[in-house]
Amino acid sequence: MADEDAGAQNQAGEGASAQEQAVADAHEEAERLSTAAPVLGKPGPPIGRRSPFVIGFWGALGVGVAYELGRLLQAASGVLVLVAVALFLAIGLEPAVAWLGRTRMPRALAVPLVALLIIGVLGGFLALALPPLIAQVGQFVDQLPVYISQMRDHSTTLGHLDARYHIEERVRQALSGVDSSAMAGEVVSAGRVVLSTTFSIFTVLVLTVYLMFDLPRIRRLLYRLTPASRRARVILIGDEISGKVGHYVLGNLVTSLIAGVGTTVWLLIFHVPYPIVLGIMVALFDLIPIIGSTIAGIIVSLIALTVSLPVAIATAVFYIAYRLLEDYLIVPRVIGRAVSVPAVATILAVLIGGAAGGLLGALVAIPVAAAIDIILRETVFPRLDRA
Asked: What is the extent of the structural domain holding 84?
């Protein structure tokens, strides 16, 4: 028994001495390494760029940055749309500012003059349109009992319409199913929409004026972001594109003027009330591609009902014919010629832009088509011809 205890102690002592010897050897190795360079030992091989850890880390970081950037753009999409519209208007009004500059007028005076001209046109339209519209609404309210009695008399025009489409019955059903609280909510929602639209219009006007002031500086900043070896060519192409945008705005104004004058003449011939106000309204609505002239035509046709049903039908036919004439002749010839884009490309650009980006997409579709045409002619086609 004593011999066994002695053997165990000898083994324990040998194990402890072995551990001490290992630690001692490690200390000797550390002292030897401490005298060599580098002090903390020879570094291992660096982690390669193709290491799974490095690829996974940078991949995850890129996904996170892209996600946050997408969230930021989505949150600021409304503001970015307003900025895009203001920039588009500022570039479109730049030819007018440049023309005043060629008369030796400083830019600090040319920009406010153009802005005041635009505000004057809008203010003049409101001054002409609002009083007749308010008076017309009042007349409609006063004549509402007369219209209801005419609907019940089937010998009148409104009576024929009511007999065929049951207008009075449908209006009563719609009004009977309306809850007062829901109607109040709709009124509040409509008020919010009006306030939001007014704020957006005011924001766009203010941004447009500021961008018109700083447009040369913004242009120089964008040009400096390009390599010096290609900067001169980028300046030429960029100036050509901005000129196309300005010509597009001018062409759009011409087509709107044609729509307004044609509407005024038509309404004067058939004695429809408020022809000048409605002509100005059609001219402003026609600035909106695709849907503007259609909405204006519907409104004018409904107002023409106050004269007679045949006049209203004739007015609707007039606007259908004018819409076809505008889409397939006036717009391709005037705007397409101003931006040097083929007629087919002009129509396709408006259709694709409206489907992809709504109102803003349709508004900028033709200038974008002109910019693509310039880039193809100046850069892509020459390279393909040399290939």
From this structure: 76-180+192-225
Return the amino acid letter for 186. E
The CA distance from 331 to 343, in Å, is 8
Q: Is residue 375 part of a domain?
A: yes
Residues 161 and 248 in one domain: no
Q: Say if residue 280 is in the same domain as residue 145.
A: no
Torsion of CA 279, 198, 361, 329, to 10 degrees: 10
| Region of residue 42 (left: phi > 0; alpha: psi -120 to 50; beta: else) | beta
What is the pTM for the complete model shown? 0.62
Mean pLDDT of all residues in 361-380? 81
Q: Does residue 274 share a domain with residue 152?
A: no
Do 138 and 214 sit in the same domain of this protein?
yes
Segment among 162-176, 215-229, 342-356 with least mean pLDDT: 162-176
pLDDT at 337: 62
pLDDT digits (tens, 9 = 90+) for 48-97: 677 787 888 888 988 999 999 989 888 887 888 888 888 888 888 888 88
What are the Cα distances from residue 52, in Å, to 56, 64, 65? 6, 18, 20
Residue 355: other Cβ atoms inside 10 A: 12
Q: Residue 309, CB half-sphere, CA atoms under 13 Å: how many?
A: 6
Mean pLDDT score of the chain:
76
The residue whose two tokens read 């025009």 is 157
**Residue (of 299, 13, 363) closest to 136 by Cα position:** 299
Does residue 105 surpass a pLDDT of 80?
yes
Half-sphere exposure of 341 (CA within 13 A, CB side): 31
